[in-house]
Amino acid sequence: MTTLISELETAVQNLLQKNTQLKQQLATLTEQHELLQLDVMEKEEQQNTDAARIKTLLETVQAGNN
Prior knowledge:
Layout: H1 2-65
């Protein structure tokens, strides 16, 4: 019986340690995900700005050809 309790204690300790590791990994991945989302948003904003500039250039060229 004592051996079984010792094994259970070890298993619980291992599970708690693994849980702590997984929580740390989750926190790291969550932070990375947030940074990637921010990067995507910044790139989309830059793309929209570039698209607006190109549109203005095309309109200027078209107006000059009329």
